[in-house]
Specification:
The protein has 13 helices and 21 strands. It has 442 residues and is α+β, with helices and mostly antiparallel strands. The strands form five sheets. Strands 3, 7, 8, 9, 10, 11, 12, 13 and 16 form a nine-stranded mixed β-sheet that branches. A five-stranded mixed β-sheet has the order 18-17-19-20-21, sandwiched between helices. The structure holds '5'-O-(N-(L-prolyl)-sulfamoyl)adenosine.
Length: 442
């Protein structure tokens, strides 16, 4: 892709309304454009990143056996009246009337809608477990939308719902999502820590938030540092293995604000392991048993002829928020260098030919290099403008393709001036560069 033809409206300076670095970068690199308070259009660069995040989230849901559906953004108030949340949700819910004066709403979440789908189709324990998810826009009329897409009013969420025959089976489902979340965030190059959390308007009494550390985060957390050394690498998708993995994480004190108890914290965590800091909530999972199934009459026939309400959980990931969260974690705002993890980078590599009006040989060379990259499935952005070296590099550092090739005096013959953003320059052949990138991609 040629930079001159791409819709990437870069800003030279930080817009004054942006208070945190993710919001600053997203505006400066032309990733989003505000439409109204807390509501944004996604421009090509930002949209490409969000779609890549979405695809990783999707793949990891599919791996645990969850099935993708798509529910509407607009819901009828009837199902929310059945669950009792129509009143409870208060001002955060955007309420709409259609031309027949029917009360509708823009969905802030989908527990009711999915329970309605379940109850009208499945009647037997033999169909369980069911894990259903969708990736869809949500609307919450937040009092204080802020930090760009981090706390938006309209935002993109992956929400999954589990249906099981008993508590025991439901915990198995819960643990599958627990594992899937650890795997998802790892593929996004984030360290997200599960923390015991409050359930708020969703309900239930078992819940974990997945939080990444960031000074600008809105969640206050209290944790035992040793939790950061854990991983879920050898967990199989099987009851005992999953429960052991969750126990491993839960052995360490790790909670959000609402669950914090000073006395307990100081009793179970030695002073040198205590960490009190802030973070960004990128995911949140809940177990609420029959809260919705009972209120809405979603039951199944059991083996002995009895009926029971299905046991449900719900599992959310903030897909649009993750774009900002990755920036908070990876953007070096002092040096104005963003390095996207290759898994979600808008481009794999930036080609920076030193072009001047009388000599297009560097640009020709870049275009030839690009042909070879395309053959190898490597996505490049070529800066074909005639700006000077430093302004070209500044732009590419904001766009954040993790690799760069500078095509100027130092890229003579077969050896190219290559660098991984933020690292030393190396002189390498194109074949070697392709090998490095392909290896990282797998
Ligand atoms: C779980 C899935 C739920 O809504 N119902 C369905 C449950 N959980 S939640 O914690 O309220 O939201 C899930 C994730 O969505 C992101 N998120 C937001 N992102 C941007 N702007 C917002 N205003 C916003 N609110 C929630 C968070 O990542 C959260 O973990």
């Amino acid at each position: 892709m040629l930079l001159s033809k791409s819709f990437v409206p870069i800003l030279k300076n930080n817009p004054s309304e942006a208070k945190i670095k993710s919001h600053q970068l997203m505006l400066r690199a032309g990733m989003i454009k505000q439409a109204s308070a807390g509501i944004y259009s996604w421009l090509p660069l930002g949209f490409k990143i969000m779609k890549k995040i979405e695809e990783i989230v999707r793949q990891e849901q599919n791996k645990i056996g969850a099935q993708e559906i798509l529910m509407p953004t607009i819901q009828s108030s009837d199902i929310w009246k059945e669950s009792g949340r129509y009143e409870d949700y208060g001002e955060e819910m955007l309420r709409i009337k259609d031309r027949q004066n029917r009360e509708m709403l823009y969905g802030p979440t989908n527990e009711e809608q999915v329970t309605e789908i379940f109850r009208s189709s499945l009647k037997s324990y033999k169909s369980l477990p069911q894990l259903l998810y969708h990736i869809q826009w949500k609307f919450r009329d937040e009092i204080r939308p802020r930090f760009g897409i981090m706390r938006g009013r309209e935002f993109y969420m992956k929400d999954a719902y589990s249906f099981d025959v008993s508590d025991e089976e439901a915990f198995f489902s819960y643990n599958k999502f627990f594992l899937s979340y650890l795997r998802t965030f790892k593929r996004l190059a984030l360290t997200a820590i599960p923390m015991a959390a409050d359930t708020g308007p969703i309900g239930g009494n078992l819940s974990h938030e997945f939080i990444i550390l960031a000074d600008t985060g809105e969640s206050k957390i209290f944790t035992d540092k040793r939790i950061f050394d854990l991983n879920s690498n050898d967990t199989e998708l099987e009851k005992n293995s999953l429960q052991q993995m969750r126990n491993k994480f839960e052995q360490y004190y790790s909670v959000t604000d609402e669950k914090f108890n000073k006395e307990e914290f100081e009793k179970v965590v030695s002073e040198e392991n205590r960490l009190i800091t802030k973070g960004i909530e990128v995911g949140h999972i809940f177990y609420f048993g029959d809260k919705y199934s009972k209120a809405m009459g979603a039951s199944v026939d059991l083996p002995g002829g009895k009926k029971d309400f299905v046991k449900m959980g719900s599992y959310g990931i903030g897909v649009s928020r993750l774009v900002g969260a990755i920036i908070e974690a990876k953007f070096d705002d002092k040096n104005e260098i963003m390095k996207w993890p290759l898994s979600v980078a808008p481009y794999d590599i930036a080609l920076v030919p030193m072009v001047n009006k009388n000599d297009t040989s560097a640009l020709d060379k870049a275009i030839n290099i690009n042909k070879e990259l395309i053959k190898n499935n490597i996505d490049a952005l070529i800066d074909d403008t005639d700006e000077n070296y430093s302004s070209k590099i500044k732009k590419m550092n904001l766009i954040g393709a993790p690799y760069q090739i500078i095509i100027g005096k130092k890229s003579e013959g077969d050896l190219l001036e290559f660098k991984e953003i933020g690292e030393e320059t190396q002189n390498l052949s194109l074949a070697k560069i392709i090998e490095i990138i392909k290896k990282q991609k797998n």
